[in-house]
Write a structure and sequence with these properties.
Distance between the termini: 21 Å
Number of strands: 21
Strand content: 15-25%
Number of helices: 25
Radius of gyration: 31 Å
CATH topology of the largest domain: Rossmann fold
Strand order of the largest sheet: 11-12-10-13-14-9-15
Largest sheet: 7 strands, parallel
Structural class: alpha/beta
Helix content: 25-40%
Length: about 675
């Protein structure tokens, strides 16, 4: 069923319940089968009331001595239950008339919950309640507890699971040889083991998701993700693109004109991209490299290859400052070779903008750099053959696709996405399996390592003195204001207050201010003054996070560093260390630090390597947050954990390729089982 249609019922499920189940993404019996337990509870034994231990879940059975609704301190249902060993108070703050009926004096009930010390002795708050007959048998296995939503109880979910296990085909779709090689149980066996654990099942292995049945389901989930992404990759290979063979004349001239030699990594990655561009199907490549590894030169060489063949290339960047930096750099490199570069941003004056649009529409200008203004309708690029997206994770799926759709005549442009947030290998393999990945793993020579210092905010005056000393020695410095997520206005106010405070404290220095609310001409003028050395200290919000390149700046101060993410701290730190002078990044933090804040600052203090920082970031934040899955179009894995289950990712990728080549029917059946009609999510 299409996920956008209003939910219809299925046998045993009416439209109203179907609507509630849809909130759990359960749209039919097949989805219910794969709705696996969150945890398990042990209802196989009874604990005498006298032996209950506070803080530990347990099940008791006893006679109801009495129950009443009391109104103080707030309305609640209170009951007293007794067995041969003692008495227990149970209370419910939210309750239904049906529960009151079950608690009629003389009734026999079972309660499951955590005991705690109360005013009248031991009590359970909101225990699970069930009426039982005297001598009624206990379950012989652990009881599954499922993720749920308002209006869908555990009993309903267990009943639906039992029906689905009876009615749905539990076909084995994985080759027996692979199951044997990986030591995994069959599909039907794994499902029964998870929904109805055997009496002798290991509770710890089930709880920790280390049981072979869990391993099987996690492997199949990873396999389906690989199949889907790999199919997207193959579908792109079947599309037509303009072949852009390497002509080498202008490329050689550009390399000859540079005041430095490209690194070995730049040469290697440049060759990979040049080969992709020469092919008649669209390139879809992710170029990742740490801060300062030279991605812009690689992008320039790719854009030049399009221009040498008479075709257009466009580069899109997320911020005005970064787009302008790219435009200036590309213009300086390429205009001496006779290649014009248009610059498009929302802030350009109407006449200048219209002139640029006309030059691009006529094909007179082959290269364009801009912000998301590039994807707005009036921009016509009739000969677009290459799209470069910098800091690609900052753009939503639709924005990236909109630029790609500018290609005309049924041809897809080649696409190069760049990121300075390195992606750990397992994550790249599972979330970017539909892309080819190139890595710039070498920094240009002459870069000095940046030293990182952690300083409590009570020593702010010492930091101000350090800035004064560095600037009076002829160096320049950045002072980055804290990130205040709740309020952009508050963030702006903080930047302005910090600027005023530092101007007063450092009268001998020339201090500039740049933030997101400034008009773009003002931002550009301030940045140009700082680049030219006309300002000593630049007070800024995170608008300077990427793309700012001032070799003489050797000191970075970040206030309230504990509020920033690791990727942001690493990016901001990378604004210094671009020249030959020793560079320092000072992270000012406020006490008390949260556990996460402490972890982040420890990681950034101990590591300068972006990949090591990315691995730690993945560990702290989890894969969904790390890749921005909410806007990337990649569905989050429900059961597999990319850190804990890294060993399953490689065989899942291998088996995906094997099935697509040798058993496409099994591949399709696996996709239907897990994705239903939702595979379109992966098409971006």
């Amino acid at each position: 069923m299409n996920a956008t249609q209003p939910p219809r019922g299925w046998p045993g499920v009416g439209a109203q319940l179907a609507g509630r189940l849809a909130r759990l993404d359960l749209r039919g019996p097949r989805d219910v089968l794969l709705h696996l337990p969150l945890r398990y509870e042990d209802e196989t034994r009874l604990t005498p009331i006298a032996r209950l231990r506070p803080g530990f879940p347990a099940q008791v059975e006893g006679e109801v001595l009495g129950s009443e609704v009391v109104l103080r301190p707030r309305r609640q249902l209170v009951a007293r239950i007794a067995d041969d060993s003692g008495t227990l108070v149970a209370r419910w703050l939210n309750f239904y008339p049906s529960q009151q009926k079950l608690l009629a004096p003389g009734g026999r009930v079972r309660l499951f919950g955590e005991a705690r010390g109360g005013f009248f002795g031991l009590e359970m708050v909101h225990p699970r309640l069930r009426a039982v007959a005297p001598g009624e048998a206990l379950p012989d296995a652990l009881t599954p507890v499922y993720p749920t939503t308002a209006g869908v109880g555990q009993i309903t979910l267990r009943k639906l699971v039992a029906q689905a296990l009876q009615s749905e085909p539990l076909d084995e779709l994985l080759p027996a040889a692979w199951l044997h090689r990986l030591g995994l149980p069959g599909f039907a066996e794994a499902l029964h083991a998870l929904h109805h654990p055997a009496p002798d099942a290991d509770p710890f292995a089930l709880e920790q998701r280390e049981h072979p049945a869990w391993q099987r389901m996690k492997f199949e989930e990873l396999l389906v993700q690989q199949l889907s992404l790999r199919r997207a990759w193959l579908a792109r290979r079947a599309q037509a693109a303009v072949a852009l063979p390497a002509r080498a004349l202008l490329t050689a001239a550009l390399l000859e004109s540079l005041p430095f030699r490209p690194t070995g990594a730049q040469a290697r990655v440049g060759a990979e991209i040049a080969a992709d561009l020469a092919a008649p199907h669209p390139m879809q490549r992710l170029l990742q490299g740490d801060v300062g590894s030279g991605k812009t030169l690689v992008a320039a060489l790719a854009m030049l290859q399009a221009a040498e063949n008479g075709w257009q290339a466009a580069m899109m960047a997320p911020t005005e400052i970064l787009a302008e930096q790219h435009w200036k750099k590309l213009s300086a490199w390429l205009e001496p070779l006779g290649i014009g570069v248009a610059w498009l941003s929302g802030s350009r004056r109407k006449r200048a903008r219209e002139a640029e649009l006309a030059r691009l529409a006529s094909g007179e200008v082959l290269l364009a750099v801009g912000t998301h203004a590039l994807i707005e309708d009036p921009v016509t690029l009739p000969r677009l053959a290459l799209v470069v997206v910098d800091e690609q994770h900052r753009f939503g799926v639709r924005q990236r696709l909109a630029l790609r759709e500018k290609g005309e005549g049924g041809r897809r442009p080649h696409m190069l996405m760049m990121s300075a947030t390195p992606i750990p290998r397992t994550l790249a393999m599972t979330h970017y399996a539909d892309l080819d990945v190139s890595v710039l793993d070498e920094l240009p020579p002459g870069r000095t390592p940046i030293r990182t210092r952690l300083v409590s905010d009570v020593r702010r005056d010492e930091v101000v003195a350090r800035v004064r000393a560095a600037c009076l020695e002829g160096r320049q410095a950045y002072w980055v204001c804290p990130l205040i997520e709740e309020s952009e206005a508050l963030q702006l106010q903080t930047a302005q207050d910090t600027f005023a405070t530092l101007v007063e404290a450092l009268p001998e220095l020339r201090v500039g201010l740049v933030h997101g609310r400034l008009r773009n001409e003002e931002k550009s003028a301030t940045m140009a003054a700082f680049s030219a050395g006309a300002l000593d200290l630049l007070v800024a919000t995170t608008v300077i996070e990427v793309g700012v390149d001032v070799p003489n700046a050797s000191l970075m101060v970040i206030e309230h560093a504990e509020r920033f993410g690791l990727a942001q701290l690493h990016q901001l730190r990378g604004r210094v260390g671009r020249g030959t002078a020793e560079s320092v990044c000072i992270l000012i933090y406020a006490q008390p630090l949260s556990q996460t804040g402490r972890e982040r600052l420890k990681v950034i203090y101990e590591n300068i390597d972006g990949f090591a920082i990315a691995r730690e970031d993945l560990r702290i934040r989890g894969p969904g947050e790390f890749v921005g899955a909410r806007q990337s179009g990649v569905p989050l894995l429900r059961y597999a954990d990319l850190e804990l289950d890294a060993g399953l990712a490689e065989p899942a990728r291998e088996l995906a390729e094997h099935l697509l080549a040798h058993d496409p029917a099994a591949a399709n059946a696996l996709m239907r089982r897990w994705l239903g009609g939702r595979e379109a999510l992966l098409r971006a």
